[in-house]
Write a structure and sequence with these properties.
Mean pLDDT: 89
Helix content: 25-40%
Distance between the termini: 24 Å
Largest sheet: 8 strands, mixed
Shape: elongated
Bound molecules: adenosine-5'-triphosphate
Strand content: 15-25%
Order of helices and strands: EEEHEEHEHHHHEHEHEEHHHEEH
Length: about 325
């Protein structure tokens, strides 16, 4: 397999994963032959335009794909187990215990009619410890996510909290079971810029403390540059570039990544809420084009790009790009 991160000891390895969605208007090939390594104890950013498959990949890794989704091929390996073959029962054991997720909208994971304390103790149902100890752990975790007066917050309901506080509760719940992998799917999109910075810092601190791996899905290049160690750039259901954040941001290898950065007015540092648009549109994923899927929008495309689908070529140590230009560069080096 093409190494996606260059790390020898990944927590989770995605091998040639393909996911289809069956719809009345045809089959959408949303993910095609995804190869990715999630390094142990590090933060991997997943970036790309809306519709490129970030959420589909994230949901595949926690077994929460929608009913019309089908894993069309490949494997997701985590310590010897292929998660694509996990039974509903195995998923129940994995979820919340080894793999947790925080969503864009905190209300996706919070029960509106349950108090914060109730939800935070319920999530510890596997632990054979007294209820008082579960409450103590909940308070400790609320303290960690910097919720003021945590003891009193156990009795409140989600609607009594602000958006930022709700997301902190979700982070606290997701980390309460000390998972090995935390998937954060655009967790700051619904928050204003100041809160976004606070939440990102918090995630960074907690990740260091707990030592879990994190997959951080984001539209926001600046946040990824600040928070993540590694990055995978997705386009039209494929991973088109992977590597250490410093390498990919300094010397993007794929014309799509270059275009993303070029039309980002913030150019890494300043806060932007959404990726600016690149001329053209994503291809129709019901009829995936031959050759390179970015060719119609690529200023550097030539004949080969229409004829041959590019594999992931090395662009440097632990840095890969799915572009024929890299093979040309290699050949002339
Ligand atoms: N349940 C579904 N049924 C049919 N098609 C779907 C479904 N979920 C996603 N898709 C399609 O799969 C493709 C990938 O979507 P996905 O939501 O994973 O992209 P994304 O990069 O996460 O986008 P965003 O940033 O807007 O969340 C898109 O073409 C989308 O329309």
């Amino acid at each position: 397999m093409d190494s996606a991160s260059g790390h020898s000891d990944p927590l989770l390895t995605v091998e040639r994963l393909s996911v289809d969605f069956d719809t009345p208007r045809g089959t959408i090939h949303a993910l095609r032959d995804i190869d990715l390594e999630v390094p142990k104890g590090r933060i991997l950013g997943l970036v790309g335009e809306s519709g490129c498959g970030k959420s589909t990949l994230a949901y595949s890794l926690i077994g929460l794909l929608s009913g019309n989704a089908r894993i069309a091929g490949g494997a997701i390996r985590m310590t010897g187990t292929d998660l694509t073959r996990a039974t509903a029962r195995q998923w129940r054991d994995l979820r919340g215990q080894r793999i947790s997720m925080i969503f864009q909208d905190p209300m996706t994971s919070l029960n509106p009619v349950g108090s914060v304390g109730r939800q935070m103790t319920d999530i510890q149902y596997r632990d054979r410890i007294p209820a008082s100890e579960k409450r103590r752990r909940a308070v400790e975790m609320l303290e960690k996510v910097q919720i003021p007066d945590p003891e009193s917050k156990l009795d409140v309901y989600p609607h009594q909290l602000s958006g930022g506080m709700r997301q902190r509760v979700c982070i606290a719940m997701a980390l309460l079971t000390r998972p090995e992998l935390l998937i954060a799917d655009e967790p700051t999109t619904a928050l204003d810029a100041t809160l976004e910075v606070q939440i990102v810092r918090l995630l960074q601190d907690l990740q260091r403390e707990i030592g879990c791996s994190v997959i951080f899905v984001s539209h926001h290049l600046g946040t990824v540059a600040e928070l993540c160690d590694e990055v995978a750039v997705m386009y039209a259901g494929e991973v088109v570039e992977t590597g250490a954040v410093r390498d990919v941001f300094r010397t993007p290898a794929h014309p799509y990544t270059q275009a993303l950065f070029e039309c980002d007015p913030a150019r890494i540092r300043e806060a932007t809420r959404h990726l600016p648009t690149i001329p053209g549109t994503l291809p129709d994923l019901r009829q995936v084009p031959e050759g390179c899927c970015f060719k119609a929008r690529c200023p550097r495309a030539w004949d080969l790009c229409a004829a041959k689908h590019p594999p992931l070529y090395a662009a440097g140590a632990g840095h890969h790009g799915r572009c024929h230009l890299l093979a040309e560069a290699e050949a002339s080096a």
